[in-house]
Write a structure and sequence with these properties.
Length: 299
């Protein structure tokens, strides 16, 4: 239930971030800035539009987290049993990267559907039918594409997602595991910190926040490329997004040529506003659940 509530709360941030990422610098109708994008969406489409894509996202995030942490836990245990195990930092990076890749691949169709719904404007008669919900319209469109190219439409942009998620989650767990112990020691009662800080798990949350912000910033261009590839050719508000058929690196170069390097980081600010608390809550919950399982005799 808490996951549903938190997802409902941050959904508007997702919609605004996606809209910003998909805008081109050369588009004269582009909306500049997160707050202005918020206001424009509400004025043109109504406040409900800020929750577009929330239905598939509500399934995406719990499933993603389950696959990610289960894979991470198993991989760290496996890597430690190798005849010549790598160092702990290398284990954290590799296990984190593969865990992110597994979770991304498993949930990718939901992510693509969420992005298309968030990108579509209800004032465009070509993108959302008045007689049927947007979700079913998006599913019909994907099914039609699937009939021409089996399975491919559901995983469009996946290479860009994997190119970004492996270093993102690798850096995240590398940073988190590296910061967690020092922060727990620094914020312990032995160093004069109030006891409730350690009891509530604040050091874990802080480590997750720092790791999440740093890793998100490092790989954000790949997230932008993924979004561009997911909606390419889709018409919204009279705009047809450019087609990108040459793979991740070519799409990256096309975005730079069209919008400059800044185009790769459009929406980063609001993305970090979302990533910081999300990372903190995620690792805090993971550590608390892991502690309970260990006390109950689980591994």
């Amino acid at each position: 239930m808490s996951g549903v509530v938190s997802r409902f709360t941050i959904a508007p941030l997702d919609v605004v971030k996606i809209r910003l990422q998909l805008q081109s610098h050369t588009d004269k109708s582009a909306i500049r800035g997160a707050l202005r994008t918020f206001a424009t969406i509400i004025r043109r489409e109504g406040i409900v539009a800020l929750w577009k894509g929330n239905i598939p996202a509500s399934f995406l995030y719990p499933l993603y987290g389950s696959v990610q942490f289960a894979t991470y836990r198993r991989l760290t245990q496996f890597l430690k049993t190798l005849p010549t195990p790598p160092g702990q930092h290398a284990i954290n990076f590799v296990a984190g990267g593969f865990a992110g890749a597994a979770a991304t691949t498993t949930t990718y169709p939901l992510d693509l559907l969420r992005t298309r719904l968030a990108a579509a404007s209800s004032i465009s008669s070509s993108s959302v039918s008045r007689s049927s919900p947007a979700l079913f319209e998006a599913l019909r469109t994907l099914h039609a594409e699937h009939r021409q190219h089996p399975l491919r439409p559901y995983f469009r942009g996946l290479p860009a997602a994997l190119a970004g998620i492996f270093p993102y989650m690798g850096l995240f767990f590398f940073g988190y595991e590296g910061l967690r112990a020092p922060l727990n020691a620094l914020l312990s009662p032995q160093h004069g910190a109030p006891g409730w800080i350690s009891i509530l798990g604040a050091p874990d949350a802080l480590a997750g926040t720092i790791a999440g912000v740093a890793s998100k910033t490092a790989v954000f261009p790949f997230d932008t490329v993924r979004k561009r590839m997911q909606v390419q050719g889709q018409s919204t508000t009279g705009t047809t997004y450019p087609l990108h058929t040459g793979g991740v690196l070519r799409t990256l170069s096309e975005v730079i040529a069209r919008d400059g390097v800044r185009g790769l980081y459009r929406g980063l600010g609001i993305g970090l506003i979302k990533a910081a608390p999300a990372s903190a809550v995620t690792v805090w919950a993971y550590e608390r659940c892991l502690a309970v399982m260990q006390r109950m005799g689980g591994s």
